[in-house]
């Protein structure tokens, strides 16, 4: 599988932001707010007063020693292709703004699972939340293997590295030259340590049109501390949970499984919240994981309803790891690219 590589490859061609693409883009939406974008939201871990929400630490620690590969049977429901990008921040002397350079290298399997025929595609890069257009690539005629080799630059104050995100949105162009929104990915700049080093990664574009089948969303934070060989999973909160069997009320809790070779080797769970479709947990799960086996593991996070027997009835789940799909592998890769620093992300929950 493709993992984050902290390399320094530069785009082979520089792109003028005013270049006109080969097809008209007049139908491209100016904003993508209505697409229900997927967020990297560490700010959601703050309380309303601006302070950091305290976490409840799991008391037990599980050790792991053996090495094997991960295999799971979960599909790629939300992924509509991959996009390789490099971000680099160039600080300027004095108090003025620096320059953020964004290089789009290549794409794979773009729009592969979309219905209909798209003879062309392009990528739009936007700075959010301002919805500032950073650049639009040339239209590519082969959406399955695309060499973009395009570079955009934008003046950006250092403080914006803590506040802004970049959105990469893929659009297909059908036979009638209409632009159809297909998938997107967002990178929260504060998660990337751009003031220290460039960031290079494969982004997994999410099919926002299919994510409506989710049974809720969950906000998770991941971090790995190499020196202590400690993997920390913070279950922050969930929202818009859909109960099983048309229930009108239920008591949710979250189970976190560490998987190896598709088998559950460790399990932790949060406390239960009473009758809440938008529960706040803020509980940290600590796993002892040697660095040599980190890439051989995955996490399964399941939201469940409390039952009389204590086992719980599963509402939905998400898989996170090097062989997961969509948001699962994107989150894992960003954790590896920013070791020691927590990275938080919303995940759609799929029916178990």
Automatic annotation (TrEMBL):
InterPro entries: C2_dom, C2_domain_sf, Syt12_C2B. Pfam families: C2. It comes from the Eukaryota. Residues 79-203, 214-347 form the C2 domain. GO terms for biological process: calcium ion-regulated exocytosis of neurotransmitter; synaptic vesicle endocytosis. Residues 12-21 have a biased composition (Polar residues). Residues 1-21 are annotated as: Disordered. PROSITE patterns: C2. GO terms for cellular component: exocytic vesicle; plasma membrane; presynapse. GO terms for molecular function: calcium ion binding; calcium-dependent phospholipid binding; clathrin binding; phosphatidylserine binding; SNARE binding. Belongs to the synaptotagmin family. This is Synaptotagmin XII. It comes from Hucho hucho (huchen).
């Amino acid at each position: 599988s493709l993992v984050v590589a902290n390399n320094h490859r530069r785009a082979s061609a520089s792109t003028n932001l005013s270049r006109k693409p080969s097809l008209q883009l007049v139908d491209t939406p100016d904003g993508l707010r209505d697409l229900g974008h997927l967020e990297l939201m560490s700010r959601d871990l703050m309380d309303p007063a601006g302070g950091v929400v305290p976490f409840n630490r799991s008391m037990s620690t599980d050790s792991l020693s053996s090495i094997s590969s991960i295999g799971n049977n979960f599909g790629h429901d939300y992924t509509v292709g991959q996009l390789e990008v490099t971000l680099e921040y160039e600080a300027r002397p004095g108090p003025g703004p620096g320059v953020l350079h964004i290089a789009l290298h290549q794409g794979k399997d773009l729009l592969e699972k979309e219905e209909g025929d798209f003879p062309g595609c392009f990528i739009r890069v936007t700075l959010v939340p301002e919805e500032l257009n950073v650049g639009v690539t040339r239209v590519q005629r082969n959406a399955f293997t695309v060499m973009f080799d395009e570079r955009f630059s934008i003046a950006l104050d250092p403080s914006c590295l803590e506040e802004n995100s970049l959105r990469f949105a893929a659009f297909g162009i059908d036979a009638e030259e209409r632009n159809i929104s297909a998938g997107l990915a967002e990178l929260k700049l504060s998660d990337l340590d751009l003031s220290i080093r460039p960031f290079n990664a494969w982004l997994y574009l999410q099919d926002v049109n299919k994510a409506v089948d989710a049974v809720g969303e969950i906000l998770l934070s991941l971090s790995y501390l190499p020196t202590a060989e400690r993997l920390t999973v913070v279950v922050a909160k969930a929202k818009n949970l859909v109960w099983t069997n048309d229930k009108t009320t239920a008591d949710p809790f979250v189970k976190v499984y560490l998987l190896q070779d598709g088998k559950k080797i460790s399990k932790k769970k949060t406390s239960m919240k009473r009758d809440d479709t938008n529960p706040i947990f803020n509980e940290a799960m600590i796993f002892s994981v040697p660095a040599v086996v980190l890439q051989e593991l995955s996490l399964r996070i399941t939201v469940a309803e409390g039952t009389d027997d204590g086992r719980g009835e599963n509402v939905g789940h998400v898989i996170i790891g090097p062989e997961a799909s969509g948001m699962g592998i994107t989150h894992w890769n960003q954790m590896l690219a920013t070791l020691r620093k927590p990275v938080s992300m919303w995940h759609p929950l799929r029916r178990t």
